Amino acid sequence: MQNKRPRPVFLDLTKIRLPLTAVASIGHRISGVLLFLAIPFLIYFLDLSLRGPSGFAYVIRLLDGWPLRLLSVLLIWALAHHLFAGIRHLLLDIACGVSRESARRSAWMVNAGGLVVLLVAAGALLL
Question: Could you confirm whether domain 20-126 is CATH 1.20.1300.10?
Answer without folding.
Answer: yes
